[in-house]
Amino acid sequence: MFFQRAPVREFVGFHGTNNRTAQFWKDKGAVLKPPPTTSTYDFPGLTVLFNFFSSRKNNDGSSGADAELGAGLYITDDLTLAFGFANNNKLFNPGTTAAICAIFAVDSDKWRESPKLVIPELLRGDSRDCGVAQQLDQARQAYISLQATLDPGTEIRVGPLSSEINQLLVQPPLAPNFQAECINVDDRFNPNIRPAGFPSDVPFPPLPYTSPEIVANWKIVPPSDIQAAVARLMVGLPGGKG
């Protein structure tokens, strides 16, 4: 008799949200896009008007709040950054409290085989100008279409925020493949210690997405600046940002 092995989940990162979204995800059993009455900040679309993690006046893409990899759910490998998003989320959604979520791929085997790629710096960013925002998104789509091994729309997008902090984007159609375990937090939260309530399969400290081990195990395709420049030209943008 053949027995099929039950899927084993895998931790993929953190997301900062509010208690209403955390409860919504718990009830649904997946990180689905919450209704507007629950949260307006968890699945940013293009042209998000507020950049909470940059003092720059132009919204040129320094955080997931900018939707700089595209529209969808942003997950980070840095707990401190997720904590910052949680605090801003509660401000964006009055009457809520901050919550930190550990995000898991429902099936580790499928997660490790799913297509993933780093979006080159030339293609990361959003804009207050809807036309430019659309062009940037079209350039990302063009870049993905140039990857022979990828089926556009099925990919997980990765983007470094700094030399040590990274984010990845889960596009809305892929959200049912992920679950969240969330806890409420307050200003006394210590990001260097495993928070009470997080399960034991959340590694501390978690490995960054750019670590050789994660890149190899998750099969993350490295960026190509040449293809990024071509993709920009394909949609009418200059080949470089400068």
TrEMBL record:
This is Uncharacterized protein. It comes from Favolaschia claudopus.
